[in-house]
Design the sequence.
């Protein structure tokens, strides 16, 4: 039997390994994630890889409850910088774990996080463009049942079931 | 008045256009506008005294020095116009499905008739941004809350979708999102399992726009029936109008002290 303590140690080692792996994956060549817009992340990238959820979590309460809307740690700012069009000029959706910046890492680390069931996973211009196309085709933007949002939720529940 | 609001009938004739009341109001405003200027007053070269209602710095929290509200001039609202509703849907990416009875409605047009006089009125109703909001009282998680500046919101991070607030709201202002959503806009995150309602265009207010999508659309359409502003600032247009002409609260008997008021109801 593995004791609780051992499990905890194992868990820590595992998390450590994942973090190392993530760092390598992001840096590794052959990534299909389009490069970010900016030159430099708002924080040290290594620190960000392991701590970005703290900053986003903090900022979300500041914004929703107190109306503080500084750009530095806002999810919108992350998305605007990191989600850029690929060679074909298309913005990857969150369900695309190869090309979407956030999804590429979340799926690698088996993190099932649901920011993008509510939050936009690409910059506003791209969302507006998609809405325009849906509307032009006579489709309600929310009524696309084969939507990537559904796919994403399916995939996320598979992830958490593992 | 409650009977009037509760019984919606088809409008038989259009509301009068501009009343004398509003004409006086317009000229008064331009007089004051001429003295003070639209955005600021120069006290010395290069030094400007800006109106209190201008944008707050992004890193500062909202305070209760301001209380945002809206005044709807019912006499300038016509039944055939739904520019405010369309603008709200567009601003927040609501896109209600044709014929759906459950898709979110943040603002809707209501037409009422007083049976005793046959007088009909048409006006928009959205979250009334109560000072004492019943939706906040009943929320088990604290997700339904009132910001310091009077805007009532749902914190969707902590909303569990119990819908108590929908039951508690006397104005049926809240909707529950039943379906998976797609293409939400960055400034209005929303999703399945949460309740949502008019947020008084909080992202615009925080950006210092000093208006809401519905008020803007109404103005653009030439009705100018909705005025947005700071109820705490006696110099704001909304306060001046309220001072001069008064403003009714829908179901004032409930004592909720709503932030949305109606003129001519
Ligand atoms: S109108 Fe309804 S949703 Fe809005 S603050 Fe009042 S009780 Fe809450
Ligand atoms: S549905 Fe959400 S906001 Fe409304 S009472 Fe329940 S937890 Fe609170």
Sequence:
């Amino acid at each position: 039997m593995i004791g609780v303590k051992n499990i905890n140690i194992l868990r820590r080692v595992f998390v450590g390994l994942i973090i190392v792996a993530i760092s390598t994956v992001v840096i590794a060549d052959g990534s299909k994630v389009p490069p970010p817009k900016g030159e430099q992340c708002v924080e040290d990238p290594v620190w960000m890889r392991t701590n970005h959820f703290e900053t986003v979590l903090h900022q979300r309460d500041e914004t929703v409850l107190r109306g503080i809307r500084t750009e530095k740690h806002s999810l919108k700012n992350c998305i605007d910088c990191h989600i850029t069009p690929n060679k074909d000029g298309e913005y990857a959706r969150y369900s695309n774990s190869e090309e979407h910046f956030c999804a590429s890492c979340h799926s690698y680390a088996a993190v099932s996080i649901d920011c993008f069931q509510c939050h936009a996973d690409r910059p506003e211009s791209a969302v507006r463009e998609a809405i325009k196309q849906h509307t032009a085709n006579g489709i309600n933007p929310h009524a696309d049942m084969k939507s990537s949002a559904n796919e994403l939720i399916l995939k996320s529940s598979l992830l958490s079931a593992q | 008045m409650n009977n009037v609001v509760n019984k919606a009938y088809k409008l038989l004739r259009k509301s009068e256009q501009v009343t004398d009341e509003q004409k006086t109001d317009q000229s008064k405003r331009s007089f004051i506008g001429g003295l003070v200027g639209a955005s600021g007053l120069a006290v010395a070269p290069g030094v400007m005294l800006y109106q209190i209602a201008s944008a707050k710095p992004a890193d500062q929290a909202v305070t209760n020095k301001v209380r945002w509200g809206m005044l709807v001039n019912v006499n300038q609202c016509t039944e055939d116009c739904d520019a405010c509703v369309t603008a709200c849907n567009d601003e927040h990416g609501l896109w209600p499905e044709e014929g759906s009875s459950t898709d979110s409605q943040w603002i809707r047009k209501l037409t009422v008739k007083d049976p005793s006089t046959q007088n009909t009125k048409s006006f928009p109703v959205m979250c009334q941004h109560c000072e004492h909001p019943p939706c906040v009282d009943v929320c088990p998680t604290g997700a339904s809350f009132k910001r310091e500046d009077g805007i009532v919101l749902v914190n969707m991070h902590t909303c569990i979708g119990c819908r108590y607030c929908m039951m508690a709201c006397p104005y049926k202002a809240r909707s529950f999102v039943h379906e998976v959503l797609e293409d939400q806009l960055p400034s209005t995150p929303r999703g399945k399992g949460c309740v949502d309602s008019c947020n008084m265009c909080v992202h615009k207010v925080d950006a210092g726009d000093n208006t809401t999508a519905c008020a803007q659309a109404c103005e653009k359409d030439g009705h100018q029936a909705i005025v947005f502003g700071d109820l705490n600032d006696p110099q704001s247009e909304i306060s001046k109008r309220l001072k001069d002409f008064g403003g009714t609260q829908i179901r004032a008997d409930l004592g909720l002290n709503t932030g949305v008021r109606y003129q001519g109801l």
